[in-house]
Amino acid sequence: MNDLSELTAHDYQALAEFRHQLRNFLAFSEQAARAVGIEPQQHQLLLTLQGFTDHDKVTISTLAERLKIQHHSTVELINRMVERDLVQRSRDEQDQRRVLVTLTAHGHEVLHKLSLLHRTELRSTGPQLVRTLHTIIGESSLDYMGKE
After folding, report:
1. Contact in structure between 102 and 88 (CB atoms under 8 Å)
2. Residues 6+ apart with CB under 8 A from 88
3. For 83-129, what is each residue's pLDDT tens digit?
4. How far is 48 from 66, CA to CA, in rounded Å?
5. Residue 4 above 80 pLDDT?
6. What 8-state DSSP symbol labels residue 17?
7. Do 67 and 74 meet the contact criterion of CB atoms below 8 Å apart?
8. Model-level pTM?
9. What is the DSSP letter of 142?
10. 105 with 96: CB under 8 angstroms?
């Protein structure tokens, strides 16, 4: 086994291939979002909202952190999405200072279409992505994670 600080030409090739595959998937995702009439960041916000459990109260701050964007940028994104009936805002009944964000029926519909497309794409491209990732992390990483 190589020292973990050493990188071979094969390591660089695998990292480059993994990055290429990720970028291909992201390009697909961006194109799919635009094809249904929304921006990629709007798709990410819809998916982030849907990914929380029913009992989670999703605030603008939570979304900003999950999307890795500034609070004011998240507010502007939500404003545009409210105008398009993709999400709605409401005050938290227990803490009126907090603004909660939820999907609308239309937001669910758009997200459902996109998620079906993404699942189909991942079923096609995912196995190669997993093989490349496995090349990078190797067997010892899987053993360490308890996933033998």
Report:
1. yes
2. 82, 101, 102, 103, 104
3. 999 999 999 988 889 999 999 999 999 999 999 999 999 999 999 99
4. 7
5. no
6. H
7. yes
8. 0.85
9. H
10. no
Q: Does 20 have pLDDT greater than 90? A: yes
Decide: 133 and 25 in contact? Cβ < 8 Å.
Answer: no
Tokens found for residue 57? 């109260």
The DSSP secondary-structure symbol of 55 reads T
Estimate the share of the chain in helix, then strand, then coil, as percent rounded to the nearest 5: 70, 5, 25
Of 129, 137, 120, nearest to 22 (Cα)? Answer: 129
Where do the DSSP E strands lie in 17-126? Answer: 87-91, 99-103
One-letter amino acid at 98 equals R
How high is the pLDDT of residue 2?
A: 52
Residue 146 has pLDDT above 90, yes or no: no
Residues 6 or more apart from 50 whose CB is under 8 A from it? 103, 108, 111
